[in-house]
Amino acid sequence: MGEEIFLALDIGTSNIKCGCLTLSADILVEKKEKFPLVQFGESFEIDVIVFFDLIKDLVGQCLSEIQDRTKKVKALLITSQANTFVPVAKDFKPLRKGIVWLDERAKAEADCLGVKLPGYATYSGFGKPLSGLLASKLLWLKANDPQVFNNAEFFPLINEYLVYRLTHSFYTDTTSFGMSGMYDFVNRDINGRLLQILQLEKSNFPQIANAAEKSALISEEVSKEWKIQHRFPVYLCGNDQCASASGAGLKDHGDITINFGSALVLFSITKSISKNMGIDQIAGKYPVSHDYFLLSYEPDFGLVIRSLKEKLFKEGSYDLLFQTYLDYPDVAKITPRLSEMQLDFKTNESAGQFCAGIIKYYIDQLKKHIADVNQRERIKNIFLSGAITKSSVWIQIIKKEVSSKAVINNQENAGLMGALNIYLSKN
Fold it and tell me: What's the Rg (C-alpha) of the chain?
């Protein structure tokens, strides 16, 4: 019998990655597809049927390229973006398109929850209810599409929907569900007051366990479709940012990781759930240990940078985009607003100065996030990850402006490595 292998899925906002890994963290095969995001205006949605078919095809491609077919799949490990969900019927048939975490339609509902949930910051992992949270989006759905809301039996996050379609079991993990705004970290249960406001029951939501501690076997029909002769367990290994942090090198208190992906995320370990937080911070259960995490973020960083690259440097590289920061050091910072960015410039110089101003904004925000974390616990090590770290100019800027000692591990594959780390920490 050949060596056992692990399948790992990293469901990000830009891409879905699938890897076949050995126990020693060697990646035998890796495949990637774009996350099937549909945007119209400020709304972001997903067809979860298309999403599930894409996942099946992606895993099937990975398995088909394993040259040694005697290798046995030990488990499927899943990490995923937070707060993307879909309302489903009792048989898990979707009742509408899924709503992605980037969607901002629930601003009024978030404000409403802020009034109805006094003390929210002391138990939720958030400074206040945000429009991107599952909690706020459910209230929006209840008010704006009551027929779908009332007909829905469950409201699974995208990783919970996937695991049900793969195993016919409905479960989740405290890390992913803990970032939904629905969880009470003091009582370690779904927020009872929030259930009352939404007029929902615990039965509308999945069983909750710590990351990588609960599993169910892959269904017979899926294993046959993947041409695998045995059924293997499927584990939920927490949020994609948590997995990326672990895969990038995060181990101890004083370590931080900075991920430059669709969002700019700074991630650190804390001994207890953080309560004194800004609106651009999230606290939750760290999946590797008994600790918690503090996550500071700029949600649209990668989307803005990609937009600048595709529209102003289409024939060039990210290095050319980031070089503008070095070429125009004296420009004022510009606060990016993705939906309002007008990118028609008369000269290359004005375009370059605009890009430099946007980059300066993100550098300044990153410095503020680092200073805040350093006040809470002295920073010892900084690890970098994410696709944008492939830009040598960006790394030059980061090492100059933030830390010359920053270390890059795994870059784009940190999430896959982290999923394996999380599984091994519990099994």
Answer: 21
